[in-house]
Design goal:
Length: 270
Amino acid sequence: MSNSNTVAQDGTNDGPGSESAVLSRSRVFTRLGRAALDMLLPPVCLGCRVRIMDHDALCPSCWRQINFVRPPLCDRLGLPLAIDTGAPALSAAAVADPPDYDRARAVAGFDGLMRVLVHGFKFHDSHNARRLFGRWLAEAGRELLADADLLVPVPLARWRLLARRFNQAQILAAEAGRRSGKPVNPFALVRSRSTAHQVGLTRAQRLKNVAGVFRIPPSELPNISGKAIVLVDDVITSGATASAAARTLKRAGARKVDVLALAIVSERYS
């Protein structure tokens, strides 16, 4: 007489209490739960709010409004290049005025719908797109994240953090870290004083504005020394903030500092 719970000849147990059966039931319940959630909160486009098939996504029309940064790129600044040489290349800007960080990568140009999404996330407490941002960052920063030992968000000044109640760079770093499996340290870098907004400043003014603004707490020095670090921020404008942070990290012994952001400002996209 057979027993449904007996172990099969190949050594597996396919009975109702087996691990495979439990996993199968779990997947069914997960799918049912998602279907019920979709009925209560149907997925909508994060850009225009039209109904779509999946959560945390854009409709085709909004997707086409994102100016994704694609190769060929300046290996140092992450800016689009006109010609693909088939090898790592530097832009004229990187040669003339190299940054203090090693490489930068960004998801898209800071214009159009991307600007709207970033501003909603940063200034209007709209975090609906955080999972989409995480996927984008993981893809755009694949090369940087593969080499990284640690992800560090660019910090906010204390009073600005209190006013905003969150650091957008820390949220982005958490999403990128979760997808890449890399650790995130939001305490490794501290903004020692507040600065004026960078918008509207010349490059020289931006550099002066962020000079000496970052520091490393003594307790974090062992966590920085010898590490390959990816700085995470929302937007790279002139690169002055990223360079100031990179200088501070390298003085503390960081082996390498790359920068990963949602958006980048360049002549092509501005």
